[in-house]
Amino acid sequence: MSTIFYNRILEMTDLKFDKKCLKKEKTFVGSKKTLDAGLVGGIKDMENRLGETEDISENTLRSNLVFLFGIFFILILVLIYSVVKLQVVDGERMYARSEGNQIKLVDIPARRGIIFDRDGERLVENRSVYDCFLNLNHYFGDMGVDDEQLRADGEVLEEILGDNWIRDAEGQDYNSIVERIYAVMESEPYIERVKIASDLDNESVLNLRSLQEEIPGVYLEEGVARHYPHNHYLAHVLGYTSIVDIADVENLEYVGLNDVVGRSGIEKYYDQYLFGEKGQLAIEVDALGQPVSENELLVKSDIPGSSLYLSVRLDAQKKAYELLEGAV
After folding, report:
1. Is the pLDDT of residue 260 over 80?
2. Rounded distance, CA 217 to CA 109, Å?
3. What is the pLDDT of residues 163-199, one digit of tens each?
C-alpha cells in the first residue's frame, strides 16, 4: 500500500514538471515569433526608406541631366549661329578679306650710333637714302616661282641700276641680280623680300618710280646710309659697313636679313652697341605683300644705337696723313 502511494506521488510530480516545461517552451516559442515579426517589420521599413532614397536620387540625377543637356543645347545653338553668320551672312566678305589681305609686321631699322673724336667732331654720321627691294611674294604662284617674270624684272633692274646693286652675299660675287636672289632664297626659303640696292642716286629713284607699274614686285623704301666725311684720314680706324650675309644671321642674334653690320675697324668691334634696336610697324597688305591702306600702327618704336667718343683727334690724324702722303 505504501509502495503504491509512493509511486502515485512520483507520477504526479513528473506530470507537473512536464507541464511547467511545456508552458515555458510555449512562452519561448511565442517570444521568438514576436522577435521574428519585429525583425521582418524593421527590414520592410528599411527597404521602404531605401526605396524612397533611391527615388530621390533618381529624380536629382534626372534634373542634373536635364540641366546639362540644356546647357549643351544652348552652346550648340550659339555655335550654329556663329557658323551660319560667318559662312552665309558674312561669308563672301570674310573670304575675300582673308584671301586678299592680312596684317604684316614690318621692321623699322634703327639708326646706327654716331662716332665722334675726343673733341666732339663727327667722324661718322647717318644720312637718309632710298633702298630698292624686291618683293618675292609677287613671283610665287601655284607652280612655284615664276622664273620668266623674275628674270625679266631682274634685267630691267640691271639696266636702271648699272653696277650699283648688291653683288656680295656669303663672301662671293654674283653675275646677275637673279642669280643672287636664287642664292638668298636657297639659304633662306621663307624670306619675303630681298634688298637689291642701297643709297640710290636721284636718277635711279626717278626711273624706278616711273616703271613701278611695269615691275610691281620692285619698290623703294627710305633707309639710312653711313657717311664718312673724313674717310681719307680715318678709314683704317673707322672701318666700313655692308649688308649682312647668311653667316651673320646665324652668328649674330640681333640682326636679320637686309640689315647692315660693321665689317672692320670701330664699326665692327662696337657693332652691337652701334646697331640699336629695331622697331615694328603693322600694315595691311594684299596677297602679294603690297600695302593696301595708308593706315599704319606703330607696334614698337625703334631705339637708335649708342654713340661713341674715341680717344683719337681728327686734326692729329689729318696731320699724320699729310706727312705720310708727302713722304710717299
Report:
1. yes
2. 21
3. 888 876 455 678 889 888 888 888 777 788 888 998 8
- pTM reported for the whole predicted model: 0.59
- Which pLDDT tens digit goes with each residue over 274-318? 999 988 888 877 665 666 666 778 888 899 999 999 999 999 999
